[in-house]
What we know:
- The protein is mostly helical.
- 68% of the residues lie in helices and 0% in strands.
- It contains eleven helices and no strands.
- It binds protoporphyrin IX containing FE.
Amino acid sequence: MTVLADVAALSTRLREGTRAEHTQAESEGFVERLLSGGLDVAAYADLAAQQLAVYTALEQASERMRQDERGAALVFDELTRVPAIERDLAHLHGAGWRDVVRVLPATERYVARLDAVGGDVACYAAHAYTRYLGDLSGGQVIQRMMQRHYGMGAAGLEFYDFPEIPKAKPFKDVYRERLDGLDLDDTEVELAVSEAQEAFRLNRAMFVELGVAHP
Ligand code: HEM
């Protein structure tokens, strides 16, 4: 067995390195109340408004990453979320939605982080992994819970639909292969794992502020 076999792949390092943060994020009060029917569509709409700010910054970073020799392999058009979130907000608030939505301070910090580090391939990989693999996993649960508890139909929940990804599992496998193929050195791998942990913390901070706004 060569020495190389001992080095865990980036996708494995990211998954194992963020397991604790994942548990903390998904058990945040706002998330639990929203998914158990304890809140309302206004709380969901406020979450969607925060996600619009986050995905606008993430997808601006994706545009920059297309120019990166290594990172371009991680940019998938089929993952783009901003147009879907804008349609959701127009459904939830009406045509004047841009005058209605507000961005919370925790979300502004998240956006500032994406703007600051999104051009670095290891940091971009960390943030894209945290959001996109999350949406293709737990995100599907959120969609179902919103329909079950708040009587929502497809409209307003397009954020969770990936019409160009018929099956999530094989796509996630391809995404993990691309992560593993980024050819990051050891220092970059460590940076990616610590940045992914930070990405989860930034998401959790957003949930905490949403929880204060929607008790
Ligand atoms: C809202 C509550 C949440 C639920 C119910 C949930 C549920 C799940 C489930 C069932 C998986 C699949 C695990 C597997 O493949 O074995 C998953 C994976 C994942 N989730 Fe969540 N999740 C939640 C919140 C979050 C949040 C807030 C984030 C990040 C912002 C996130 C990011 C991820 C990522 C990145 C993965 C992929 C892990 C990997 O395969 O490497 N999740 N989630």
